[in-house]
Amino acid sequence: MTYKTITLSLKHPENAERLCAYAAMVARKFNAHLIGVHTAPSFDAIPTMFSVANIEQMTSVVERRKETSKQIKAIFERTVAAEDFVSEWREAGAYDFNPDQQYTADWIGADLIIMGQSNPDRAPRTQQNLIEKAVMNSGRPVLVLPYAGTFETVGENILLGWSGTRESSRAAHDALPFIRDAKDTQIFWVGKQNEKTRYIEQTAEQIALGLDRHGARVTVTHREPGSISIGDELLNEASDMGADLIVTGGFGHSRVYDFVLGATSNHILKTMTVPILLAH
């Protein structure tokens, strides 16, 4: 298994250069086909929106969106110009009233989706909703790049957040191309060691053995729960080990075993400091 098709979702010119450079690094690592996609937000339809004045405003909005797409396309093409891997640009459904289906169509054909964390000063919930839709609806792993910071490596030191759930198992297997080549992968779980968490401990050992058979260099680490959230425990551990990638299940449903519940997933997406690969 490897990543042969990578879809890069681009929303705003302000962060496009960092996202394109990071996606190019990932595509270079796997010699993957990189698809840059810009899909403009849908219009919020209201009963009076088709008056003459509003049509003029809508025309102005469409023109601004075309200019935004033009700027992002130029950044993408400049980034990939000297690369050996194959790349393409799409403006899929950019001016449709409901582009959600087009988003999903572009995601489903990919082996990996790359997106950017929200700019905390610019309508953060819109992009966060899009990330959640990608994780929940695409069936593909989603690699999210923090809004700030410089990342010159990807997948050399990996922290795998483990819960023994379907979501965490899916994430581990979806990240296998990274894990197989990593210098170190640490399987990390949080909980009091007792009969209730014995299952998590056992499955952590089993996933370690399974990854080892793929040639991965894996260790298992456990932490007793402290005064901070599990999400913050994960981020702290990533900082301590110098991880350049966190892998974990996202937006799960089990309130007993899920490592990253919906609320915690949202918290991590707001406070992340290293790239995170999420799978559902």
Describe the structure.
The chain is α/β, with parallel strands linked by helices and 280 residues long. The protein has two domains: 5-145, Rossmann fold (3-Layer(aba) Sandwich); 157-279, Rossmann fold (3-Layer(aba) Sandwich), CATH 3.40.50. It has helices spanning 13-30, 52-80, 100-108, 124-137, 166-174, 176-181, 198-212, 230-241, 262-271, and strands at 5-9, 33-37, 87-90, 112-116, 142-145, 157-161, 184-190, 218-223, 245-249, 276-279. The relative contact order is 0.14.
Salient structural properties:
280 residues, Rossmann fold, ten-stranded mixed beta sheet, 9 helices, 10 strands, globular
Separation of termini? 18 Å
Q: What is the CATH fold-level name of the largest domain?
A: Rossmann fold
What is the CATH superfamily classification of the largest domain? HUPs
Order of helices and strands: EHEHEHEHEEHHEHEHEHE
Going across the major beta sheet, what is the strand order? 3-2-1-4-5-10-9-6-7-8
